From TrEMBL:
<dbReference type="InterPro" id="IPR045335">
    <property type="entry name" value="FtsQ_C_sf"/>
</dbReference>
<keyword id="KW-0131">Cell cycle</keyword>
<dbReference type="InterPro" id="IPR026579">
    <property type="entry name" value="FtsQ"/>
</dbReference>
<dbReference type="InterPro" id="IPR034746">
    <property type="entry name" value="POTRA"/>
</dbReference>
<feature type="region of interest" description="Disordered">
    <location>
        <begin position="281"/>
        <end position="301"/>
    </location>
</feature>
<keyword id="KW-0472">Membrane</keyword>
<dbReference type="InterPro" id="IPR013685">
    <property type="entry name" value="POTRA_FtsQ_type"/>
</dbReference>
<dbReference type="InterPro" id="IPR005548">
    <property type="entry name" value="Cell_div_FtsQ/DivIB_C"/>
</dbReference>
<keyword id="KW-0997">Cell inner membrane</keyword>
<comment type="similarity">
    <text>Belongs to the FtsQ/DivIB family. FtsQ subfamily.</text>
</comment>
<protein>
    <recommendedName>
        <fullName>Cell division protein FtsQ</fullName>
    </recommendedName>
</protein>
<keyword id="KW-1003">Cell membrane</keyword>
<keyword id="KW-0812">Transmembrane</keyword>
<dbReference type="Pfam" id="PF08478">
    <property type="entry name" value="POTRA_1"/>
</dbReference>
<keyword id="KW-0132">Cell division</keyword>
<feature type="domain" description="POTRA">
    <location>
        <begin position="89"/>
        <end position="157"/>
    </location>
</feature>
<feature type="transmembrane region" description="Helical">
    <location>
        <begin position="42"/>
        <end position="62"/>
    </location>
</feature>
Length: 301
């Protein structure tokens, strides 16, 4: 921008002669551009910085959080974003917390921004969506920290059970989603669940089972029957049929029977708790009925 000064140059012909005759153009020597001093260059650069700061101070907080600045590249070109990066608002550091199963490479690829990228040009919403699409990431927050940092907080999925479906095992999280992993052996001790809708209901089942931890340790598998109730496999050989209504009460009854009578240690295969206040037990190897004793022959006459 040209600066206005009080000492504008004029031609020698106009000095002492008043105004030039009408119709005649006054010849003016060409303006020579004086090179800017270092102080002036700093002032210009500072002017850009102050302008950006003014934008941020006005509606910049809304623009930064809503992603409006990220759209400037398409709407107004890259000039503004390049100016912000030149003034120091460029990505130089990515801080990630909460990462355990997710690799650093996966996180950086999902962010997709290289060092030097204008910080205001990063689409926060799109970055968050790419992060949550990663196999282990259940939730993510992404935040700009001016002048040059991106802060990412990751919440990873909590493995809950192994879901058996069509002769295959899948790791599922507490919210019922499948977690893609190549290392199922690491989770071999988790409960195995069966049933199309089992992952969605397994969370409540595990909460109920945790109320009786001694009994819970004996459960190896759970089958969601008819999309409405559970059958539990205990110790690998006893099936416990829980009712559809109030399964927690039945679970506590079973725990009491185990404490008092060691029911599950007996030679049984099924414990049916579907009827209120009743326990039906099926033996594994029922005793054969006793044969009637033979009458001995008498020699009496």
């Amino acid at each position: 921008m040209r600066s206005l000064t009080a000492n504008n140059p004029v031609s020698a012909a106009t000095v002492g002669r008043g105004k030039a005759p009408a119709g005649r153009a006054v010849a003016r020597p060409p303006l020579r551009k004086r090179p800017r001093s270092r102080l002036e260059r700093l002032m210009v650069r500072g002017g850009i910085a102050f302008g950006i700061a003014g934008v941020l101070g006005g509606f910049g907080l809304w623009g930064a959080q809503s992603g409006w600045f990220a759209e400037l590249g398409g709407n107004l070109g890259h000039s503004f974003l390049e100016a912000t990066a030149a003034s120091g608002l460029a990505l130089d550091e990515v801080q990630v917390t909460g990462r355990s199963e997710t690799s650093q490479e996966e996180v950086l690829n999902a962010i997709g921004a290289k060092r030097g990228t204008p910080l205001l040009g990063i689409d926060i919403q799109a970055t968050r969506e790419r992060l949550t699409a990663l196999p282990w990431v259940a939730a993510a927050t992404v935040e700009r920290r001016f002048p040059n940092k991106l802060v990412v907080q990751i919440t990873e999925a909590e493995p809950l059970a192994l879901w058996q479906r069509q002769q295959q095992l899948y790791l599922v999280s507490r919210d019922g989603k499948v977690i893609e992993t190549d290392n199922l052996q690491k989770y071999a001790k988790l409960l195995v669940i069966v049933g199309d809708e089992a992952p969605r209901h397994a969370g409540k089942l595990l909460e109920m089972m945790a109320s009786e931890p001694d009994l819970q340790r004996q459960v190896t598998a759970a089958v969601f029957v008819g999309e409405r109730r559970w059958n539990l496999r205990l110790n690998g050989n006893v099936d416990v049929k829980l009712p559809e209504e109030d399964p927690a009460s039945a679970w506590h009854r079973l725990a009491a029977l185990q404490r008092q009578q060691q029911l599950l240690d007996k030679d049984i295969t099924i414990v049916d708790l579907r009827l209120p206040n009743q326990v039906v037990v099926r033996q594994a190897h029922p005793q054969p009925p006793e044969k009637p004793a033979r009458k001995s022959k008498s020699n009496e006459t």
